[in-house]
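job 3f2a | input accepted
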Amino acid sequence: MIAAEAIRTTTPIIDQIEELVSDVPGWTPIDQLFTLFQLAYSTANLLGDIVEIGSWCGRSALALGLATRLTGTGTVNCVDLFPEKDDWIENPDGSYSFQVTIDGQIHHGYKTHTCWREPFERDVIPLYRKNHSLLHLFQTNTARHQLQDVIAAHRGNSETFVRSVPNNFRCRLAFLDGDHSYESVCSDIDNLEGFLVPGGWICFDDAFSYYDGVNRAIEDRILNNPRFELGQQMTRKLFAARKKA
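job 3f2a | predicted structure (245 res):
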């Protein structure tokens, strides 16, 4: 009989990722999760953690966490506002947004790109049937796959996160999938760029697809930034590397 460890060793990584996220709500397809895994895995030789801005239920976090566990390097820091059910509000046009209060400060979500009623009722409401908050669901998903020791959840945004880390904090991979407005994406880039090590990667979700704010932020802060080298666009994600010198 083949040992369980050997079975996992010879099981293709993409199949392991698909198994990990099979029942985790989210929109990132397997090929893009595999690319995130590869970046996390291939940068294990660099100093620094991984930072994800916008984690939802943990779909991409699990792929990043798998790479981190296999390489035994760093932590996946997952930053999200993690709204509770009562944080959602209906807008005058029938769409939905949310606002959460953290340490006395109000933070808004889906303010610029609101969530329309159909996807809200289909994709959001069911999440709260067994969970009082997305944070609880996220933590349940990471613990269920025994990745809670390499994945750390932070309730907030990139600004609150960088205020909480020490000056010597370093990041080898940043995955930005938070608020898609121009101002928010620029803020995420500005907040994290100083922590990104030479040779480290920054990845954007929904790049050059339907969100003008994301596109303009990438053009202004990355494509025209001499400190970065253009990597590659993969369907709705763009990857760029910080220059090594």
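job 3f2a | Confidence is low (pLDDT under 50) at residues 1-7.
job 3f2a | closed
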